[in-house]
Amino acid sequence: MTVLEMYPAVEPEPVRLDLQLVAEVRNDVAAELSAVRRNEAAGEELSEADEEARAQSIIWDNLDRLARQRSVNGLAPLTPELEEAIARRVKADLFGLGGFEDYLHDPNVENIFVNGHDRVFINRKGAEKVQQVGPIAESDEAVVQLVNRWASRLGRTERRFDVANPRLDLRLPGGHRLHAIMEVTERPTVTIRCPYPRKVELPDQVDFGTIDEPMRAFLSAAVKARCNIIVAGGTGTGKTTLLRAMLHEVPAHERIITIEDTIELSLSRWPENHPNVVEMETRQANVEGVGGLSMMELTRECLRMSPDRVVLGEVRGAEALYMLKAMSQGNDGSMCTLHADSAYGVADRIRGYVAEGTTGLPMQVIDGFFRNAVDLIVHIRVLPDRRRVVSSIVEVQKDFDEGVRYNELYSPQVDGIGRPNTAPSPRLLEKLHHAGLGVLPW
Asked: What is the chain's mean pLDDT, rounded?
């Protein structure tokens, strides 16, 4: 059971919480829980469910004491609704997702931006502007402590968020993607990107207006024809969502290995589509500086695991060379995402990434790897009205010995989906026909 399943969705609190009061109760409860753990250390260890039940009792004991203290001091009693809200928030701070919980449960929230505990902004689905909301915690230190607890408990591998490790990428339960950074910013900054709440396939992308039906048929055929594909675009354009939708077109018998900094594709959630999938995630080094595994190392390792397809969640470093090797050494049908402002800018990005991890590899050699490895580049962008659209698709031409040349299959439009421009090369067209592409849009 995930954290989000344990704490069912609730409407945002109608009661305005005194976060300092919440912190006082939470600190007292945490101290008592710590004492309970020490007392239980010699005996049988408490399960997480037992610990939460014990915490619930301790929380209400503390609220009863607080009520008596307020009475003695002549303060107004807390209302039952406020006590219930404090109890729920303290439990969320200790075992759940703290002040983020209501927003993470809200299916209309797309992004959460925290620029310090009291500068919190929410981006809701369909809204033109972000909305500033109340504080997420009582202090910046409390935000750091909460995120650090998530890092140690919620990820596939234990991570840290502290002065020695001032940046963090983490997948929260439910598929929410968290990035946190401190020290290099004036205040701790947290960005959470919320997933679409249900499975998204290529027909859904047609319904969203991201692609049209002829483009859906083309992309489906390209995946089934085992084309090597790079999905490119800017931040927040929906690259991962489109890549995941395309991967749902892969036949179920194929073995897929995914490699990501933090698990975002989550193909294992749909075993009916992908029964033979291995999801690999990078790992930080421990406090002694050993045990870390980078994207480059995992990409190299996965080639020994007999994959039918290799999928990199996002290429942004020296792993680009190993991705190109995977694409050109028998793992046809491999895919990745990459940040680029146009389809034509992808090759320059790859050149830079490969150069980062090698010494003296000539550009002609890098271009040769690229030409041999990549078949298609699919570029996605966000229009001014916030619609996400596939704006262009280009084919990488193979019949040249120098540089990188393209065949623009779909050309960008000012206000919509890319328009069919030039027919694929005979080589690609034959592959697409064998994969079932009937009617051509060109």
From this structure: 87
Element (H, E) at 311: strand 309-312
The structural architecture, per CATH, of the domain 97-196 is: 2-Layer Sandwich (3.30)
Q: Give residue 192's pLDDT.
A: 92
Distance from C-alpha of 379 to C-alpha of 433, rounded to nearest angstrom: 23
The CA-atom distances, in angstroms, between 397 and each of 367, 426, 431 are 12, 11, 15
Of 155-159, 208-212, 232-236, 293-297, highest mean pLDDT: 208-212
pLDDT tens-digit map of 256-290: 999 988 788 889 888 998 999 999 988 877 666 67
Q: Are strands 167-171 and 177-181 parallel, antiparallel or unpaired?
A: antiparallel
Q: What is the DSSP code string of 7-55?
A: S---PPPSS---HHHHHHHHHHHHHHHHHHHHHHTTSPPPPHHHHHHHH
**Is 97-196's fold the same as 202-434's?**
no
For 17-51, write each residue's pLDDT tens digit.
Answer: 888 889 998 988 888 888 777 766 555 566 777 78
90 CB-near residues (< 8 Å, 6+ apart): 22, 25, 26, 29, 59
Do the Cβ atoms of 17 and 85 come closer than 8 Å? yes
CB atoms within 10 A of CB 362: 8
- Which residues does 22 contact at the CB level (< 8 Å), separation at least 6? 86, 89, 90, 93, 138
The residue among 27, 191, 208, 203 whose CA lies nearest residue 123 is 191
Q: Which two tokens stand for residue 80?
A: 């039952």
Q: Report, in this order, helix, strand and coil percent for the chain, each rounded to 5.
A: 40, 20, 45
Q: Domain 202-434: state its class.
A: alpha beta
The ranges assigned to domains in the chain are 1-96, 97-196, 202-434
